[in-house]
């Protein structure tokens, strides 16, 4: 008996838009972000269309005693499945020095690459939730995204226009 692949492993028939969020707060943060963007640009199945300027942000979550982050957003198109795109992001993190086996959630890291959105895909799997479950709460994702695409919409039932989500956070509109 065969099992149908999950939506996270289904490759799109045509390229779909993707939004990635990158952050770093250890070492040379700007260099880590540049290297990660270069690795994404070189990846098969992913076309990088735009890269935001880096923005500084304070740590959020449970680990507040750590260096400030530099974050940016990458907009692109991919023929990779959501799962394959996540694996690519994890590979870019590995190359950038992140060891996920000892990574503290919300803790310091040399590089972090998150899939914020993969087309209009909505998934809730143990290790892959799309759109990113906390994107709507993070000005450091929403503001750079809105600067790159003022008409952007975070998909899903808890999504909406990115500029409106940012305004609800009290963040300055681009």
Polypeptide structure, described:
- This protein is an alpha+beta fold.
- Helices cover 26% and strands 26% of the residues.
- The protein has helices at residues 29-42, 82-95, 139-148, 162-168, and strands spanning 16-24, 46-51, 55-57, 69-78, 112-118, 123-125, 128-130, 153-154, 160-161.
- Helix 3 (139-148) runs antiparallel to helix 4.
- It starts with 15 loop residues before the first strand and ends in a 6-residue tail after the last helix.
Give a quick summary of the entry.
The protein is an alpha+beta fold and 174 residues long.
Based on the model shown, name its key terms.
174 residues; alpha+beta; five-stranded antiparallel beta sheet; disordered N terminus; 26% helix; 4 helices
Q: The biggest beta sheet, please? A: 5 strands, antiparallel
Percent of sequence in beta strands: 25-35%
Q: Quick one: overall form?
A: globular
Rg computed from alpha carbons, rounded to a whole number of angstroms: 16 Å
What share of the residues lie within helices? Answer: 25-40%
Q: Total helix count? A: 4
Determine the N-to-C terminus distance.
53 Å
- Residue stretches low in confidence (pLDDT < 50, at least 5 long) are 1-5
Counted beta strands: 9
By secondary-structure content and strand pairing, the structural class works out as: alpha+beta
Order of helices and strands: EHEEEHEEEHEEH
Oligomer: single chain
